User: Fold Methyltransferase family protein from Streptomyces brevispora.
Amino acid sequence: MLGAAARTGRAGLARLLLVDCHSLPLRSGAVHGIFGAGLLDHVHDPDAALREWARVTARDGVLALFHPSGRAERAARHGRPLSPDDPLARPNLEPALRRAGWRLVEHDDAESHFLALADLSRA
Assistant:
């Protein structure tokens, strides 16, 4: 993805980094938004990733977790049933976000896409 961004001229729009999403080389509160496209269900420690993303996000920042297909469609495409253990299922995602300091604002698990939006619930 980074190579594609560079080849299409997008590298000048932002600094592109290939890093461990559990340990970002950014100061606390450095960004106003985190966009995870198809990422959270692939990291080895989702709770740690959510905590790290909260650390680097400014107080007024947001988290957007997106996938261009819904959870049920992805499960079917991979030949498996939709699992209640899926980290993106609302009963799993909402408490995980809360433990990391996020507040779930929207959870849209449509057939055509998945989108979860969260903001920081810091005092």
Summary: Residues 33-120 form a domain with the Rossmann fold fold (CATH 3.40.50.150). DSSP finds four helices and four strands in the chain.
